[in-house]
Amino acid sequence: MSTGTGDPKELGVFLKARRADLEPLQVGLPDTGNQRRVAGLRREEVAQLAAISTDYYTRIEQGRMQASVPVLEAVARALRLTGDQRTYLFELAGRVPSEPPARSSRDVTEHCRRLLDQLTESPAVVLSDTMDVLAWNRLAAALLTDFAQVPEADRNYVWLLFNDPVLRALYDDWPAGAHACVAYLRMHTARNPNDPRLLSLLARMAPRTDFQHWWQTCEVAVQSTGNKVFHHPIAGTLTLDWDTLTSSTAPDQHIVVWTAEPDSPSHKGLRVLAAAAQQGAETSTLPDSVRERLT
């Protein structure tokens, strides 16, 4: 498959640079000890490693032939390309790789956790493609649920939304929110239908007739931005906008952030929750004096 774009000239420059970076011993070829006319690998050596003819590889490097996807995959392996270099190779060739990019770790980076912690007036969580809750800040725990107290196997936003009555009761329009989450989850099946976590979640959700009804409609959606109304027992009614930010280094991790209009009742409500979270107090026992001072 072709993307319809490509730059054969730049492709040749890139391939020459990459083979110049490698020595025969690095790729398992014998070093004859003879003086080499070019730095790094010769064209015939790259062709040998990629199991193609020297003429075929030469024409690719000279921009006289568009390589097939399998050949590009073989050349990428022969040249020991990194993930980013491999992506660049396919972009220059105007091709779509047959193999999906390597999945990122479920571990959330330290700087991402720091970002969450510094969002002191905005609840934020990190969700995986299957909507596992990977990280959260203090205000998200105060608004939604204390994820740290949820068993890791149940720490999935879809699972909690359907099975946790407290989280469910927060939603002003629970059916719309739950339906949307099912659509987000189904979108993931196109990217990785055999994801073990996805299959496990679907098996666990099988007894839920409401989930099954929405799942079978085959509706899909991408998490982007929206608006939600929550009825919180302490902060009251909160009208919050939410945005989804996807990490460039971990494309299957999505930071969802809820914000409120400045100086609005919802903004003041979030500040009430932030004060409670900062003090390490239970939101149900927040002193009236704190609430009055912030409102």
Automatic annotation (TrEMBL):
Gene3D superfamilies: 3.30.450.180, lambda repressor-like DNA-binding domains (1.10.260.40). It comes from the Bacteria. One of its GO terms (molecular function) is DNA binding. Residues 36-86 form the HTH cro/C1-type domain. SMART domains: HTH_XRE. PROSITE patterns: HTH_CROC1. It holds the Pfam family HTH_31. This is Helix-turn-helix domain-containing protein. It comes from Streptomyces adustus. The lineage of its organism: Bacteria, Bacillati, Actinomycetota, Actinomycetes, Kitasatosporales.
